[in-house]
Amino acid sequence: AQSVAQPEDQVNVAEGNPLTVKCTYSVSGNPYLFWYVQYPNRGLQFLLKYITGDNLVKGSYGFEAEFNKSQTSFHLKKPSALVSDSALYFCAVRDMDTGRRALTFGSGTRLQVQP
Amino acid sequence: EAGVAQSPRYKIIEKRQSVAFWCNPISGHATLYWYQQILGQGPKLLIQFQNNGVVDDSQLPKDRFSAERLKGVDSTLKIQPAKLEDSAVYLCASSPGTSGNPSYNEQFFGPGTRLTVL
What we know:
Chain A is mainly beta. Chain A has no helices and 12 strands. In chain A, strands 2, 5, 6, 10, 11 and 12 form a 6-stranded mixed beta sheet that branches. In chain B, strands 2, 4, 5, 6, 9, 10 and 11 form a 7-stranded mixed beta sheet that branches. The interface between A and B is medium-sized, with 24 and 24 residues.
């Protein structure tokens, strides 16, 4: 079975400071990893994905994530946070070695960026 | 391109009543998913369709939930009868069906239907 852990319910950061939202995963095979963002009353919006290749993945709105196979982590990062980044962030995984394409999501981390 | 459409956006019903949700995926997307997102949790897959066939419904409570995608395009999710614990946001997502499409591994989500069961 596959699973995702987001250990922080909420992350608070001041505008202009770097931010990190943590994610660890568990799959039996090789992972496909994703980050989505959810604004109030909106659906999930895709930020970035890791399929294969470089461990540092760049995505939308200046976000990036680093795949670390030995630590089974895929932390989301941004060098300089904006107030408009305040939202709910979800990490998700699927096992690329199975035919199951549905995603398993973490419980989400609320990012609060203070002006 | 138009995104995933869902209706209604909000629904309030009493327990034991029935409710149906509708989803129209992105044009040409062969794969359609229904997820349930309970407040404070991440989305959980209910059912996955490939065209008009069910690929995965292992987490669908089949005694009360049903879903169909008869023509391989839009889909309906039904709950009959509803329970209090069904209060959640129901998200529909779609993705291209062919691995040659660069977006094959991405899922595109609709705005969701927020269900409140009283």
